[in-house]
Amino acid sequence: MAADPYSLLGVSRTATEADIKKSYRKLAKELHPDANQDNPKASERFSEITRAYDVLGDKDKRAKFDRGEIDADGNPANPFAGGGFRGSAAGGPNPWGNQRGAGGAGGGYSAETGDFGSIFDDLFGGRSRRAPPPKGANVAYRLTVGFVEAATLAPQRITLSNGTSIDLKLPKGVETGTSMRLAGKGEAGPGGAGDATVSIEIRSHAFFRRDGADVRLDLPVTLAEAVTGAKVKVPTVDGPVMLGVPAGSSSGKILRLKGKGFTRKDGTRGDQLVSLLIDVPADDAALAAFAAQWSDARNVRAALGV
To answer: What is the pTM of this model?
Structure first.
């Protein structure tokens, strides 16, 4: 004996046609086999609520069920009345497209009986029983980008698995590990091409170092440049520029070049931080003679507690 159709649809016996249809639509969307291919219990429940709606969604069948003339499967309450047993509601077609027999359970269903077709079309876009053709396989690429190219977002040319080459625009905020998705650049398939993903790796540089959005550089200067001050040429990711070294500069002094770093995600750029390193020659007699007769009485290590 099938369960009470009102209980299966979660509605009361006084529910309106609209209430019954609304409840069925909700349950059908949740339990439809196309959305639950790995859940046989959902398919079982779908068959149950569809049988319930077959009875309650039809005015005549609902009235007969309420009067006790047919059972929850839509079969005559007295299967031998009126000319023998029938496998569906009296005089009506079997909406599952199969012979239910005495058990009344049946194996399949048909979306074309009554208004099932329109309901399924609404819920599943008219494709309730047909899965879309699969797309082609996705393809993963790894792209190594030079430090300066990454900092300046220089376009990159890559060759795809099908032999075609494309120019790739690096995203703002790019760093090692950044992944870029190229829609439709994967393998071809019946439902269209898959996608490609490009993972970025930024090479290290001979003298630039990255610090977030900033670029750091250790800049050697001579003793004379540090003592008297000078204008010196400094490399940047955008090309060489002139930098003023203040007179009396010590090793470790940091000078800033605005906007010479990496581009952030918001489009602004970091800076280049230049650390001065005074380079003293190892064997210079004149410098040694000068230092021997020159005295500096300061305790330059006082801050270190010595």
So the answer is: 0.56
